[in-house]
Amino acid sequence: MASMMGQGALAASFAVSGTSFQVASGKLTSQGLSSYVQTDRSADGKGHPVALLGIGDARLSDICQAAEVATPVGKVVFRLTAGGKAGEVTASSLVIDAEDLVGDARFGTAQIGRDASTLDQVPGIKGEAGKFGLQAGDIEVAGVKSHAWSATGGNFRLRGLSIDVSLDGKKCF
């Protein structure tokens, strides 16, 4: 799946919803990060510029994902949480299409400005030739906060999973 996303094959059949969502975690670590800029498309054809973040084997201390959605009864918040006291959240071949990412980061063996078509830290995550890319051998980010359009991954392990949908619900941040 990560290979198909990285090569754009999946993007043609995966229209984003038109609603971005929040993702937060106390701490993210991974072996391998590859990133480049691309455009996600909603079903209505609208483009959303994103940084495709390919993360090898992710470990998160906890996770919160929240989206505000308009419904006939008003705006509701769809919120998913996991991890924390229940244990780590893990995902392999995690791909996040993010419009921003903030936190306190440490990148090991970082290469910034590398041609996106030559990225090799996360298998299958490569951009177009001549485009800006970056990669790192290992990463650690504390206080992760991001707005994203999509997230995909293989083998998610969500310990202590909780999903809540409510009017005027609490978002992640």
Give an overview of the whole structure.
The chain has 173 residues and is mainly β. Strands 1, 2, 3, 4, 5, 6, 7 and 8 form an eight-stranded antiparallel sheet that branches. It is built from one helix and eight strands; from the N terminus they run H-E-E-E-E-E-E-E-E. It has one helix spanning 2-6; strands spanning 21-41, 47-60, 62-71, 74-83, 89-108, 111-115, 132-158, 162-167. Strand 1 (21-41) and strand 2 form a beta hairpin. It is globular and about 50 Å long.
Secondary-structure map:
Blueprint: H1 2-6, E1 21-41, E2 47-60, E3 62-71, E4 74-83, E5 89-108, E6 111-115, E7 132-158, E8 162-167
Antiparallel strand pairs: 1-2, 1-3, 1-7, 2-5, 3-4, 4-8, 5-7, 6-7
Protein name: DUF6230 family protein
Summarize the structure.
With 173 residues, the protein is mainly beta. The chain contains 1 helix and 8 strands; from the N terminus they run H-E-E-E-E-E-E-E-E. Strands 1, 2, 3, 4, 5, 6, 7 and 8 form an 8-stranded antiparallel β-sheet that branches.
Keywords:
173 residues, mainly beta, 1 helix, disordered N terminus
